[in-house]
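Changelog-adjacent note: as of this version, every example in the card shows the full chain rather than a window. The one below runs 475 residues end to end.
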Amino acid sequence: MLKHYFLNKSVCLKIVALSLFMILTLNTGIFAAAQPLTIQSLSDDIAEIAERVGPAVVNIDVVRYVQTAPFNFRDPIFEWFFEQREEFRRRIPQKGAGSGFIVDKEGYLLTNEHVVSGAEEIKVTLSDGRDFKGKVVGSDVTTDMAIVKIEAHNLPTVELGDSDVLRVGEITIAIGNPYGLEKTVTMGVVSAKGRNISAGSDGHEYTNLIQTDTAINPGNSGGPLLNTRGEVVGINTAIIPYAQGIGFAIPVNIAKRNLNDLITLGKVRRAWLGVYIQEVTPEIAEQFNLDKAEGVLVADVVPQGPAEESGLARGDIVLSVNDKAVNKTQELQDAIRALQIGDKATLKVKRDGKEISFVVKIGEMPADETLTTKDKVFTEQTGLRVDTVTPDIARNAGLSKVTGVVIIDVIPGSPAEDMGLQNGDIILEANRKEVSSISDWEGIISKLAPGDTLLLLIFRSNRTYYVPLKIVELE
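Full-length structure tokens:
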């Protein structure tokens, strides 16, 4: 009995909390003018939602094949030899499972991309027991969504709600296939909105997720998160395996924007500004002579992209998009993604202390985002050792011309290491001034005092970004 209590502790707590809420609200007369709310009526409502939406929720079973050596060897040399020979390798099936829901009566299902990624066999089982062979017709890794098509007609569908109006504390319901347990219904509340997490073996970053304590377990992925009207408000997508009562879902409004592209094009077309951006920290604000840290800093612009063609430049600080203020990178990204490709947007920008407006025609994001060495200079105040950029270094780094100084050493525990600088990074500017040689670098560094901020423009992986460094006092 004690074991049973602990296994259901979270359920008991939810029921107790709901009971107290209803007693308080009924006693204070909040629902005096409405029909009395009871535990039984809430239970009936949830059961009705499960009955109504359940037929549109499906189970998805997948098979992936991996190649391996025919025997298990203790000697790594033998193992390596057999793995290199195609004729000795064998294909081993790996099974997986998830959930999904029907968004079109002609057999289009929405699920997670990670549920069907790499699958060679997909079986979709409907709530009535029928099963069909599934085919992925569209997928998007960034939002972890995929469309699977089955050859069936006149299927029950879900109703898509509005995740933007979802409130923290609102009751939510999940239906799915956790651990292969079909048609499992769980209940909880929205714990938070706008969460960013890293998940999966590659640490993929998921942004703007709904956090919920509605029980979501392996196999729930791809299933619907519902509100108390039975509308889909999210797609269950990830869990933190070592936590309890923490699950995540993709807001359904993101799915609504992408559904047509996934079904008709097989991919998601994204609105694109053509800039690399970063937060404006107090240190960066000081270097740009801002009264406060506000807006979003343009760290680099993509050549021939929408931003460059409209006149935006590196070092501009975007204050608003269509009169809506942006102070975080996520806010700017969301503002652009809310626009359609081909739309025109007005961006208010601060440049050299003046506010300027630019009209940008939003584009479509591309499929792919691609001398004699002088004495080395070692600057202990910053924790950097730099060297001259040679033609070979510039060519290998992807620079269009030979310029800047290259970082060849970073002191462990220094401000430079704390800010993530690394060997091979190229410094193009220091405190908003171009650095073309060792002498340029020495001239700027020599004027700095302990406590000053050194703002560096760094070139890495074919893009630039700003890094503020605090100058430390040498002992």
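Structural remarks: The two ends are 66 Å apart (CA to CA).
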